[in-house]
From TrEMBL, chain A:
Main location: membrane
Annotated Pfam families: BPD_transp_2
Cellular component, GO annotation: plasma membrane
Gene Ontology terms for molecular function: transmembrane transporter activity
Organism: Rhizobium subbaraonis
Places the protein is found: Cell membrane
Keywords associated with the record: Cell membrane, Membrane, Transmembrane, Transmembrane helix
Protein's name in the database: Monosaccharide ABC transporter membrane protein (CUT2 family)
Automatic annotation (TrEMBL), chain B:
GO molecular function, one term: ATP hydrolysis activity
Subcellular locations according to the entry: Cell membrane
Family: Belongs to the ABC transporter superfamily.
Keyword presence, rRNA processing: no
Main localisation: membrane
Lineage: Bacteria, Pseudomonadati, Pseudomonadota, Alphaproteobacteria, Hyphomicrobiales
UniProt source species: Rhizobium subbaraonis
Keywords of the record: ATP-binding, Cell membrane, Membrane, Nucleotide-binding, Repeat, Sugar transport, Translocase, Transport
Membrane topology qualifier: Peripheral membrane protein
SMART domains assigned to the protein according to its UniProt record, in alphabetical order: AAA
GO cellular component term of the entry, any: plasma membrane
Record-given protein name: Monosaccharide ABC transporter ATP-binding protein (CUT2 family)
CDD domains (alphabetical): ABC_Carb_Monos_I (cd03216), ABC_Carb_Monos_II (cd03215)
Amino acid sequence: MEVSTNSEIEERVPRRRTWRDVDLRAVAPFAALVLLLIVGALVNPNFIGLTNLANVATRSAFIAIIAVGATFVISSGDLDLSVGSMVAFVASLMILFMNSGAIADPSLMLVAAMVLAVVIGSACGLANGLITTVGRIEPFIATLGTMGIYRGLTTWLSQGGAITLNSPELQSLYRPAYFGTVLGVPVPILVILLVTAIAAFVLYRTRYGRHVVAVGSSREVARYSGIAVDRVRTIAFVIQGLCVAVAVLLYVPRLGSTSATTGILWELQAITAVVVGGTALKGGAGRVWGTICGAFILELVGNIMLLSNFISEYLIGAIQGSIIIVAMLVQRSLTRKS
Amino acid sequence: MVKPEDGARVPVLKAERISKTFGEVQVLFSVELDVLPGEVHALVGENGAGKSTFIKILSGFEVPTSGRILLDGEPVSLPANSAAEALGIVMIHQEFNLAEHLTVTESLFLGREICRFGVLDRRAMRAETRRVLDMLGSRVDENALISSLAVADKQMVEIAKAISREARVIFMDEPTAVLSREETDVLFDQVRKLKAKGTSFVFVSHKLDEVMEISDRVTVLRDGQWIKTAPTSLLDGEAIAQLMVGRELSSLYPSKHEPNVDEEIVLSVRGLSTGYVRDVSFDLRKGEVLGFSGLIGSGRTELMEAIAGLRSRTTGDVEIRGRALPVHDFREATARGLAYMTKDRKGRGLLLDEGMTSNLTLQSIGQHVRHGYLDPSSEAKAMARAKRRFDIRVRDDRVRVGRMSGGNQQKLLLAKIMETEPQIIIIDEPTRGIDVGTKQQIYHFIAALAREGRSIIVVSSELPEVIGLCTRVAVMREGHLVGMLEGEEISEQMIMRYAAGLRRQTAV
């Protein structure tokens, strides 16, 4: 082989990192978060208090965890619209199982119910993945279909009403999963950090993560590199289902009840969090920590609106809708520059 | 009017001392060019010599940092973007600017539709389109959808569009890169016809034989500098190539090493059919460089993809060292030491938005997994090794692959394939769209790999390449393997005879 001998001892000139090296797209969501914190502090001094911020972070848990899953799906070039319905469906089945009294021992029952939720969530994700890949249906359409199916099944299970956890014993046993704290930190915040850390490790430091990015950047290049494209995509949907299940594990102890309207429009919020976080909607670069940042931003905006008196909180949906459009515009203008 | 006397003709377009700087990088240094009426002017240079930037400046897509452009002897500042078309300066891009869902007529009149009382006058537009197409001798249907046209016909529509806008100078960036030889001939006929009517062409190409064939004058750029402008008749391909690289190209092709006849057969293909590839059989020996020649569309890529397991095969067996390879199992083929390097490096070979390292290790990522997670330092070592081994030159290691020159991309793609440590390497079009200097390097890499005992199949539409590199050449025609040439038989005439169907071996 031709080996150029003169470059054996390659000079390692340590390039000075300048501000131009910073990837604007990675930094933008965090800059926006800081900006929001400042705005919030100006609007209402109570806002910047630790209690309020911890509250906001806790409330963002559902969307944040679901959005971590969505980061995988979107990075691999797909989309999952069914997550909101999936939350309602999985939560309903979990509560129905706990109400069935199949297992007498409450702790054992709770563990079994949690395992069941994880299994159902993964199965729902697997269904989405297989319909998209084996069925060769656009993910937008495939998950629009399952979105209707999961929602419809929930409505049928609840007969249009609510499904409520009956046993007070189970309720009090399960309550700390959402309301409890460890060393003063609310459990949901710890769950967010744990889920995100695992997700970041999988996406950035494993073979599978590299494959997700490759599949999302170019299916053809991935195929010609010997990557099992359909398997990578399907697993991304399963990860999404798993994340939905984890969100349900936090959701059920909070209210102890679900209905046909549980999780409505959560898919919009999850996708918004992902896009605000800097992940490209066309696939490729995935940013897990950015996604978490995006979820906080959404919740903070709501919180600021609540604390301030000049915008009605009924406009939250409209504001969140605007945020996704603005985020896309910002993303595009940053792409052009770099 | 100026009399058309020699030496007294006023250039239609003249560029004086054009310089261009992007950020801190200067890419053009006082480049000069003049285009005479009715002239085909070839612009050649290695990748990165500044050709593309230069013609973008001349057609108004970029603004020069300094220097001026004269139209008919008068200084002009070209309006931004395609507005220069109004002045008769039209650029035909490598990737066509045609909307797939429009008809030919609609494409031709896009943005300047003929209207009567505010309603589209379809009949008038169709008639005008037909007139222009007839003038070009093209039989393209004016009502056909662009998406239904062959690549050559799309090119023709682009040219028709240029003419219908009364273009005086037409810039063509590698117009023949995607055309077969027949299609190229048709295109060149049209160019000659238009030239006779006074239209001028500036023609960027890497194919020096075509430059020799079609152009009246040649301008050579190297590293952003103007090197020479001369009548084509005073030059030959070798001389132009030397001007482009600035050094002797005495050994464009390395010396051939023919393997012994009793050397082990590493790859054996028997009766393979897929798509319209029919009943192909051949053997490949250890250390051999086997060429696959034939016209575009003769089924070579389909055959190779079926061998590599990227597509299914309907019949036939593939054996690696005597062991059968399962159908349509690319990863098994990779594991058994067979690699396929695609000809479509941008669409199928490399992730253009990613950096070099993640591209390099994409196919062999398993080697960099330690205890279940990726080891970045191991990947960085592989990258440093590949850069040395394949002489990949970049200013910044973190550059996006899409920003690298074609030659560096091709070297990176080869490096990526070699990371899987293959013993059998199928290289589809090893030097498509890359400059002479890099071509020479890639040829030497291929020869060196063969000397190491690896076996290589080179699929190429460039005859000199197949002839210069390979010890045996297989010729395909319409899905069949029609000839296997060895030793003295390997010549352009012989290969063309088989490829065109004038000759055929009954038993190959």
